[in-house]
Amino acid sequence: MAEIERLLLIAPPRMNRTPAFDRAAALAKVKSASLHIVAFDYVEGVAKAALANDEAIHVMREGYMDRHRHWLEMQADGIRHLGVQVTTEVVWVAKPFDEILAHVRGINPTLVIKDLHHESWLSRAFFTSLDRRLLHDCPVAVHLVASVRHGIPRKILAAVDLFRVDDHFAHLNDQIIITALRLAEQCDAQLHLLHAYDLSYIHSLDGGSGYRNAVMDELYENQQRAFSFFADLFGVPAECRHLVTGNPVQVIESFMNDHDIDVVVMGTAHRDWMNRLLGSTTAHLVNHLPSSLLTVIPRADETPNAQV
Prior knowledge:
By secondary structure, this protein is an alpha/beta fold. The chain has helices spanning 19-31, 44-47, 54-80, 97-107, 121-126, 130-137, 172-187, 211-233, 248-258, 273-278, 281-285, and strands spanning 6-11, 34-41, 86-92, 111-115, 141-145, 155-160, 190-197, 241-245, 263-267, 292-296. The protein folds into two domains: 1-115, Rossmann fold, CATH 3.40.50.620; 123-308, Rossmann fold. Mean pLDDT is 82; it is low at 121-127, 271-279 and 300-308.
C-alpha cells in the first residue's frame, strides 16, 4: 500500500486567510494527501512588553498563541469538510527559517507551501528573504503562492532550459516535465512546455561579415531540434509547445500573464558560484511572479522523480 503524501503549509503569523490556504487545501484534496499547517508566531510588543515581568509576558504570549491555535483550527475545519486530514500547530519563534527546516526533517513532507512575499529591490539588495532562503536550502519541493485564480490549478507551465545543462543536473529537465505532467494529471489541468533562451551575448560578435547572424541561425535551429525531441519524448501536444527567444525571466513572466498560468514548474539549479551569488532564473522570477511557483530540486544521483 502506497504511503500517503503529507503537505506542509507555512501559515502567516497574522491571523488572516491567504491564497496559500486555498491552494494547500485544493492540492491536498486532489493528491489525497494529509496537510499539516504550522504558524510561527512572534509579536515584538508581546515578547518585550514594557512594565511587565516575565510571568506577565508569558501569560500574554500564551494568550496570543491560544487565540492563534483556535483560529487555525477554524480554518482547518473548513478544509476537513473536503475530506482532507488536517493537523495544526503554532510555534513561538523570532526567526522561523531554522524551525521550518526542522519541521521538514521531522514530518518529511513531499511539498512545502507558503505565500510568496514580493520584496522591494532595496530589501533584496541588503537582505535575503525567507522565500529566497527556502528556494536555496529547503531539501524538498517548495510551492510559493503569490495569488490564486483557481484553488485547483487549471493551467500549468513547465519551464525548462535546454540551452545549457550542467552534467551534474543532467536529469533536471526530465524531473521538471515529469513533475508538471503528474500535477496536471492530478488536477485535470492543461500543461504547457516553455523553453526560453537568451542569445543576447551573440550581439557582442562582429556582425559586419554576417558571422553573428549565421551563428544565431544555427543556434536557433539546434534549439528547435532539441526542443522538438524533448517535447516528443514526453508527448506534449504541438499547440502547447513554446520556444521563445529572450531573457528567461521576462519571457516566463509575460507568458504566465498572457496565458493565465496558475503554476510554473521550474528547477533550482545554480550553475556556478557567481550565479549562486546573483541568483538563478527561478530566484529572480519570484520578484515578479504573477501567480505561483513550484520548484524541482535537481538530484544528479537519482533517476527522475516526480513525487511532489
